[in-house]
Write a structure and sequence with these properties.
Largest sheet: 9 strands, mixed
Number of helices: 17
Number of strands: 11
CATH topology of the largest domain: Rossmann fold
CATH class of the largest domain: Alpha Beta
Radius of gyration: 21 Å
Distance between the termini: 29 Å
């Protein structure tokens, strides 16, 4: 993979600084508000808050220049127009996001509508069934499913979105090349090949406890809607919902049996004002307005024959107007058809002008 997407030297240096400070940041553990405030500090203030003198050169392993490894160059920073718009105004957003998978594909997915689907690491069959249905339907409607690749609900939604041929991106607590838990290596490989992976820390960074809370703030920041599928009353999943509320984003939850402790957290969120989610249409309504859910669902599943043929050609590799012309499609028909497919959420245009099939 080439370093075509390269964060600026300042933001790459910040990423390296946070990685070098990781053992000291560990003391913040699961304190959501303090951790977010700490990671929003400028470099010198960050060092001071952690009991270090100003000047990053005092840290072992962190020289005066940013990392030069080619793989570390595959990142996007807040100074780049391609940086996810959902994070631009977030005060505690990372300076740079390292990208795993095709960079253009990852950024294209994150440029579209995103919904976070999260939940317990020990779900019930009910929770798994709902998670699969939500992820499959949302991805099929062109919505990027964002989660954290954790065991249980997170890994399930990534797998279901990939099975549906739709967009999905995982946010990791360590480097993009360090799947955690290790049992999710298979899903991680699929994400690199067909979806995307992002991380705040440089490649090779091992996850620490604070990194999971920090990851949750990125998940919430990327998503317009955060949906908790199944969670206990004190679940770490609720940290992500808290970050989403801090940002004024929509928070929703799937109701569960009142007799199940694994639904205490989700039922509590609904009691406290979160939107109740019955199916993907409820999430789509939150993204596109009331009634938009039904329209998007129909758009992704019911195409006119000419658009269905065009979509099949895109899936077969004719991913640009010129290539469609080579397959016998008139240029004006190709341009109009691709635009219609994009509006319906069936294809997504990459930064290079290629089209990717993402649903339908």
């Amino acid at each position: 993979m080439s370093g075509a997407v390269t964060a600026c030297a300042t933001c790459r240096r910040r990423s390296a600084l946070v990685a070098a400070l990781s053992p000291r940041i560990e003391r913040y553990g699961r304190d959501r508000e303090r951790l977010a405030a700490l990671l929003a500090l400028p470099d010198d203030e960050l060092l001071g808050s952690l009991g270090l003198g100003t000047g990053a050169a005092t840290l072992p392993g962190l020289g005066p220049s940013p990392a030069s490894d080619e793989d570390d160059a595959i990142a996007v920073c807040r100074h780049d127009p391609a940086f996810p718009a959902a994070l631009v105004d977030v005060p505690w957003a990372p300076a740079a996001l390292h990208l795993g998978g095709d960079p253009e594909r990852v950024l294209a997915f994150l440029a579209g509508p995103c919904a976070a689907l999260i939940g317990t690491r020990r779900p019930t069959e009910y929770g798994l069934e709902v998670a699969r249905e939500l992820a499959s339907s949302l991805a099929g409607a062109g919505v990027c499913v964002v989660s954290g690749l954790a065991m249980g609900i997170d890994a399930t939604v990534h797998g279901a979105a990939l099975d549906a041929g739709g967009p999905t991106v995982a946010v990791l607590a360590g480097g993009v090349d360090v799947p955690y838990p290790a049992t999710r290596r298979g899903t991680h490989r699929r994400l690199l090949a067909h979806g995307g992976v992002v991380a705040e820390l440089p490649r090779g960074s091992a996850p620490r406890r604070w990194g999971f809370v920090a990851r949750n703030r990125i998940v919430a920041g990327l998503a317009a809607v955060t949906v908790v599928v199944e969670a206990r009353e004190r679940s770490g999943t609720l940290i992500t919902a808290g970050y989403a509320r801090d940002l004024g984003r929509e928070v929703a939850a799937v109701p569960g049996p009142v007799t199940s402790s694994r639904s205490d957290g989700t039922n509590g969120l609904i009691r406290d004002g979160a939107h109740l989610v019955r199916d993907a249409r409820d999430v789509l309504d939150l993204l596109y307005g009331v009634g938009g859910g039904a329209l998007r669902s129909r758009a992704a599943t019911s195409l006119p024959p000419e658009l269905d043929r065009l979509l099949a050609l895109v899936r077969a590799g004719s991913d640009a107007p010129g290539r469609l012309v080579e397959r016998g499609v008139p240029l004006d028909e190709a341009l109009i058809g691709l635009t219609e497919l994009e509006l319906r959420g069936c294809v997504r245009r990459t930064l290079s002008g290629r089209y990717l099939a993402v649903g339908g």
